Amino acid sequence: MSDLEIAKKVSLKPIAEIAEKLGIDRDEIEMYGNYKAKLPLNKIDKTKGDSNNLILVSAISPTPAGEGKTTISIGLTEGLNQLGIKTSVVLREPSLGPVFGIKGGATGGGYSQVLPMEDINLHFTGDFAAIEKAHNLLAALIDNNIQSKRNSLGLDARTISWKRVLDMNDRALRRIVVGLGGTTSGVPRETGFDITAASEIMAILCLADDIQDLKKRLGNIFIGYTIDKKPIYARDLKAQGAMTALLKDAIKPNLVQTIEGNPAFIHGGPFANIAQGTNSVIATRMGMSFSDYTVTEAGFGFDLGAEKFFDIKCQSAGLSPKAVVLTTTIRALKYHGGAALDTLTTPDLEALAKGLPNLEKHIENIRLFNIPSVIAINKFESDTDEEIKLVKEAAKKLGVRVALAEVWAKGGAGALELAKKVVDAVEASNGVFTPLYRWDMSIREKIELIATKIYGAEFVDYTARAKRDLKKIRDLKLEHLPVCIAKTQKSLSDNPALLGRPKDFIITVREIEIASGAGFLVPITGDIMRMPGLPAHPASENIDIDEEGNISGLF
């Protein structure tokens, strides 16, 4: 059966029952139908942070074959609950662009899913729409201020980098001109659209502690300069109050359930190449407030989402994760070993062995943060016993626990070995989570530590523009912010063609963007896409709905 067919055969529990399982009275939740709810922020207990075991699920460098971090995260949660350990999973919300594009939904797969699958993948509780409106309100206020004669800040339109956003893959909107149509229709200028998941508002919402912190961060958004070089922020437009009002419900985390009826918190969805790539601090803390173990994930490979989870989110929120589950597949390792995409289901020990250095590098990276790891082999039907044995032998040489996970086919029962090894890793660990860098280091030091230690680069080069950006950041007194490096997810380097474990390469920083509202800087390497396009045959072609409202083709 397809993921959707499996999901439809599950008898969902009323969301009030899931809330009561956590110890939350049904009168305290905000219902969105029978199977979705928002939780009030006053249910968060920050004192539970030290006693809760926060587990991060990450992966090797992504491949077209897929690795299955979300599926493993959900399955691990089911397995831990089957062991009698009170566990919840905390995930990001899907973006409509990938749902209708090539990637599909983001609710797991097989018997390791969060439900209701259709609702979560399509609009959900309206959080993305609220973020989109708050972002575009600021864009409208910027253009209105440029147009205004009585309320003008003197903005230099050439310095404004704030675009508009839309939660759809639409390449035609990447670069546009606004303000055409004469003097009453605004001032013509070049701008464009990003996808909503790439909005700084999304990153802000996911790092905010509460609604007051959200408002402060929104006011700190850097817009550009005046004609006389004075920096302008969103607070100068008095925008933060109205923007926060639009986000008053979106800031509350969403509660749904897994296939096996366990609690799942799904909230926020920043990309991991240009933002921190993890769910909200608020949702993570909510999960930790009501569970003994909390399982979460970070986007793309460990070098992107996980590094940012540790160095930005955990430092910002004061979180101390206890272990990392590194997801891998036999297929992905063979791809990193040079096997062609259409041959990955064919047994190939030679290609698999050549791909193992990518896995080894990510294990080395995890150790830099002083926390234990467990390798999860996400099993597919085409995997042979010999191939699985080879990966397990490699794990043994690395001194890392490893487990075969059959969560797609068996749900929690397929994750029992993994769950036990995660518990063993947590209980045996004497280490204390240690970030890679201190925020008070110089920007160059932070960038170069990540590039050399995490990516494995020889050194970092800076273009003339990046050097000008470094000066601008110093002038704005923003050097204390962490760095969120934008890089291809396909390679440890900034060249997507370099698979496996590349060596002797240079990372080139082209420019450095300022996300002062989110509270980080974005050094950009390579070509980073903020508004994806649709493939020749998008997934939307297969999605349909009948007269009774039954959806088909969603995956």
Describe the model:
It is a single chain. The protein is an alpha/beta fold. It folds into 3 domains: 3-125 and 250-428, 3-Layer(aba) Sandwich (Rossmann fold); 127-246, Domain 2, N(10)-formyltetrahydrofolate synthetase, CATH 3.30.1510; 443-525, Roll (Formyltetrahydrofolate synthetase, domain 3), CATH 3.10.410. It has 18 helices and 23 strands. Strands 1, 2, 3, 4, 5, 6, 13, 14, 15, 16, 17 and 18 form a 12-stranded mixed beta sheet that branches. A 3-stranded mixed beta sheet has the order 19-20-21. The chain has a two-stranded parallel sheet with strand order 7-10. Strand 22 and strand 23 form a beta hairpin. Helix 6 (127-147) runs antiparallel to helix 9, helix 8 packs across helix 9 and helix 13 (349-367) packs parallel to helix 14 (385-398). The longest helix is centred in the first third of the chain and has 21 residues, at 127-147. It is globular and about 70 Å long. The mean pLDDT is 95.
